[in-house]
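The step that takes the researchers longest sounds almost clerical: writing a folded protein down as plain text. Below is the pair of lines this work produces for a single protein:

——
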Amino acid sequence: MIDHGLRHYTEYHPDSSFWAFQAIGSASFLAVAAAFLAAAIWMVRRRTTA
């Protein structure tokens, strides 16, 4: 495979950054979930009051 220019590269993160990555992933998921919830509430309220 190397003769054809294909290489495999793996990079590992240190164990000390595990909780930081967990916090970033959780915060981004919660932000997207809150945005979807707000959009759903806005759409339902808009349809029922008109």
User: Anything to note?
Assistant: The mean pLDDT is 91. The longest helix spans residues 18-49.
